[in-house]
Write a structure and sequence with these properties.
Elements lengths: L7 H69 L4 H14 L3 E7 L5 E6 L10 H11 L3 E6 L6 E8 L5 E7 L17 E5 L5 E4 L4 H4 L7 H8 L5 E4 L6 E9 L4 E8 H4 L1 H47 L13 H58 L4 H33 L7 E3 L1 H18 L3 E5 L8 E3 L1 H17 L6 E9 L2 E8 L36 H10 L5 H11 L3 E5 L9 E8 L3
Parallel strand pairs: 12-14
Antiparallel strand pairs: 1-2, 1-5, 3-4, 4-5, 6-7, 6-10, 8-9, 9-10, 11-13, 14-15, 15-17, 16-17
Length: 602
């Protein structure tokens, strides 16, 4: 599997394994080296014990050899038989482990023999000893066993002048006296073997074990190789697995082995090794388990997040990620939910915008069709030439008014396009606000009179300072607010345009006594394509004196497409001012008031 196709869980597991495995291998290697060094030290200690035992045994053999050498010298000096007999007798008496002593002549006959203990001992083959003496011309050690197999004998033979030799047979069990001072543990054993690998002595051994034929066992195969090193084999005598150390006694042509049970020598090191190996394996497994748990902690939230994203992409805008913890994953889930809410909100806005655009197209069609229909109808009437002069003037005035209405509507659309594209340029400068207000009142006075509306201008007694604004934009703002007030004010209503100075700003207020604005619509009246509902209608008014409630309902059905106030707010922002709307605007609970705040020119 390619690495880039691995899941997060697999990557974490491989990463953990990649970190833990080398560390475990290094620890295992170090532990293995430590184990080998420990085993080497243990083996060296066993070999040292064997060498100490060999030294002690060699010293004991040397003492026996010196006694035999004295006998051999006396025999060579032709001492009298009586003197030799007494000497041999004293030796047997003073050495309890010496079972008998014999002086053998050159032709193999027994010249003199002395035994202190009355034992039925089978004499060792004189011919065998003679041949060994002739071959080595030095001390010869041989072993034999009594016929009842209850006694192991150690025969020491030393050559004399004339081809003869002196031989002494010693109780093999006496070798235990040699090893008493070594203070070996109870389970350790010491064994002595002659040159033919026959057992001379073994600590803690029964007569039956002494007679066992063990020539084909691994222990004796190792002895035949004459290797002075340690070996771990099972004992052929008691079936206990031991580590044996070997030491050679060249002067006696014998071998000493010291055996230590494996469980005593190697088991602690093995247990330590296995324990450390187990701990390393456990750490690796725990690390893998921790990585798996961490992976689950990452993968599960990501799966939930992926599922939520998939459902959200499928059109379920209510789908949200479940956030169960903190950290980067929790932050990612929070960010996704926030993004989902924003997208859902924008979807709703787009739906609203689509609806408003549909209404805009419908309203634009109505705004264009109604004046054109009126103009077309009146033009055809004028073409018939069957009307009076008064009617002609009235029809021509209506046509001119409808044309102005169309021009104003198209101008609003152009201003909208210029403002949203950034092409509408504003140049702020010191501007006489009072002058612009007077011009706006004069421009709309005739229309107000035609609609039987009162249009008044209230100014303070003191002159107002100039405002820092764009004159053309301000003129457009004031005109639009007056036109909007006239549109929603019924006959005999009043519109008041006022100006004042407050907190180093110029305040312009346009107040009408018309239909007003519903409270829930006030926050939205500056939005594009939004048309607020009248505060007073025939179905909702509680003021019986307000006779224009029905007219307000009719006005709302035909008035505008919701662009006028949107353009006003954008222009106010561009000239550095602020605008707010209030409704109702008077104590009677009717009307609306728009307040524009402008900075004073410095």
């Amino acid at each position: 599997m390619r690495i880039q196709n691995l899941t997060i869980r697999a990557r974490l597991l491989w990463l953990t394994f990649g970190l833990a495995a080398p560390l475990a291998l290094i620890g295992f290697f170090n532990l293995w080296e430590f184990r080998q060094a420990s085993l080497a030290q243990l083996n060296e200690s066993v070999e040292r014990q064997a060498q100490l035992a060999a030294t002690a045994f060699e010293q004991r053999i040397e003492a026996q050899r010196q006694t035999l050498q004295t006998i051999a010298i006396l025999a060579a000096n032709n001492e009298s038989r009586v003197a030799l007999t007494e000497y041999l007798n004293s030796i047997v008496k003073t050495r309890p482990n010496w079972l008998d002593v014999q002086i053998i002549g050159g032709n193999g006959e027994i010249l003199l023999a002395q035994s202190y203990k009355k034992l039925d001992l089978r004499a060792i083959s004189i011919e065998n000893l003679k041949s060994e003496i002739a071959r080595k011309n030095s001390l010869v050690i041989a072993t034999e066993q009594t016929e009842d197999k209850k006694l192991r004998l150690l025969s020491l033979a030393l050559p004399t002048v004339g081809g003869g030799f002196v031989v002494a047979r010693i109780d093999g069990a006496s070798a235990s006296d040699v090893f008493e001072n070594l203070e070996l543990p109870e389970d350790n054993i010491i064994a002595v073997f002659d040159s033919n690998n026959r057992l001379i002595y073994r600590s803690r051994v029964s007569p039956e074990q002494m007679s066992l034929d063990t020539s084909d066992t691994p222990l004796f195969a190792w002895l035949n190789e004459r290797r002075e090193q340690t070996i771990e084999v099972e004992s052929p005598y008691d079936r206990i697995r031991r580590v044996y150390g070997l030491a050679r006694i060249e002067s006696a042509n014998a071998a000493i082995v010291v055996g230590v049970p494996s469980r005593t020598l190697y088991e602690p090191a093995r247990q330590r090794f296995y324990r450390q190996f187990f701990f390393s394996l456990l750490v690796t497994v725990l690390a893998m388990a921790a990585a798996y748990a961490i992976a689950l902690g990452i993968v599960r939230p990501l799966r939930r997040l992926t599922d939520a994203a998939r459902r959200f992409g499928g059109g379920d805008l209510t789908a949200r990620a479940e956030i169960t913890g903190g950290g980067s994953i929790g932050e990612l889930g929070t960010t996704f939910n926030q993004m989902a809410r924003e997208i859902a909100f924008r979807e709703e806005e787009l739906k609203t915008l689509d609806r408003l655009k549909s209404e805009f197209v419908s309203s634009v069609s109505h705004e264009l069709r109604t004046p054109l229909t009126t103009i077309k109808t009146l033009t055809r009437v004028l073409q018939r030439n069957k009307i009076s002069g008064v009617e002609r003037e009235e029809f021509l005035a209506t046509i001119a008014e409808e044309c102005d209405r169309q021009i104003d509507f198209v101008q609003n659309l152009l201003n909208l396009s210029r403002i949203e594209s950034g092409a509408y340029k504003i140049s702020r400068a010191s501007t006489d606000v009072v002058k612009i207000l007077r011009e706006a009142i004069e421009a709309h006075a005739k229309t107000a009179n035609a609609r039987r509306l009162k249009l008044n201008l209230n100014l303070p007694e003191n002159d107002l300072p100039p405002a820092l604004t764009d004159a053309g934009a301000l003129r457009r703002i004031v005109s639009s607010l007056i036109e909007n007030a006239m549109k929603y004010t019924t006959e005999d209503g009043e519109i008041v345009v006022a100006a004042s100075e407050k907190d180093e700003r110029i305040i312009i207020e346009i107040t009408d006594s018309g239909c007003g604005i519903q409270p829930q619509d006030l926050p939205h009246i500056f939005e594009k394509f939004y048309r607020g509902r009248p505060l007073q209608t025939a179905n909702e008014t509680t003021d019986e004196s307000f006779a224009g409630a029905d007219e307000c309902a009719n006005i709302n059905e035909t008035a505008g497409i919701g662009l006028g106030l949107y353009l006003v707010q954008n222009l106010v922002k561009q000239i550095g001012g602020e605008i707010v709307a209030e409704s109702p605007a008077n104590k009677t609970g009717r009307g609306a008031k728009f307040t524009v705040s402008l900075p004073i020119a410095g």
